[in-house]
Amino acid sequence: MEILLIRHAEAEDARAPGGDRERALTERGRRDAALVAASLRVLLPTGPVGLWYSPLRRTRETAEYIQQALPLEVSEPHEAIAEGDLEALEHHWEGLGRQPAAAIVVGHQPHLARWIETLTGTLVGVPKASVTCLRRAGARQRGELLAHLRTEVLERLCRRG
User: Fold this and answer.
1) Superfamily of domain 2-160
2) Which ranges in the chain belong to alpha helices (H)?
3) Across the strands, what pairs with 76?
4) Over the stretch 19-45, which tens digit does the pLDDT of each residue have?
5) What does pLDDT average to over the chain?
6) Which of 10, 72, 104, 155 has the most C-beta neighbours closer than 10 Å?
7) Contact predicate 12/23, CB 8 Å
8) Are the beta carbons of 132 and 147 closer than 8 angstroms?
């Protein structure tokens, strides 16, 4: 299965009304989220795709762009992403009747960097609206880092795709 870990796009300051859970995307964040969604059409393997995202507003809003751009077999929030609980998310995936060809996860720092290191043994920085592509042969197996793409690269990819 390929796993695409996406950090949410730029959001309002943490002092926004409603607190951290209700921080909305900024104008730049909305542009970057649309770019991420467009790039996924080029990056994804063929086959069923699932989308899981943190229930926090900025990740929900980032995920909405992906929902509009792709045919998804599954699309749902999962609290484990907000909490940084990779084991709970993997357990959820194992319980699916049919494994997707690709799992897209929209989440937060520092969790995504830790997950990438746990899954591949590679430590990377994870800027907002970046896409990190991994491949795992099976559940709970060490994965391979395929690509780590920032918005500048995603823009070029979309122009070529």
Assistant:
1) Phosphoglycerate mutase-like (3.40.50.1240)
2) 27-43, 57-69, 79-83, 86-94, 111-120, 151-160
3) 52
4) 889 999 999 999 999 999 999 998 887
5) 93
6) 104
7) yes
8) yes
Cβ pair 155, 139 in contact under 8 A: no
Q: Using the structure block, give the residue that is written with the tokens 């979309």.
A: 158
Q: State the residue for tokens 């943490």.
A: 14
The domain segmentation of the chain, as residue ranges, is 2-160
pLDDT (0 to 100) of residue 161: 60
**140 burial class (0-12, 13-18, 19+ CB within 10 angstroms)?**
exposed
What tokens appear for 80 in the block? 């484990």
Work out the widest C-alpha separation in the chain, in whole angstroms: 43
Say which residue the tokens 């929900």 belong to. Answer: 60
Task: Tell me the C-alpha to C-alpha distance, in Å, between residue 109 and each of 46, 72, 155.
Answer: 28, 25, 22
Q: Is the torsion defined by CA of 138, 49, 146, 10 positive or negative?
A: negative
Distance CA 33, CA 157 (A): 15
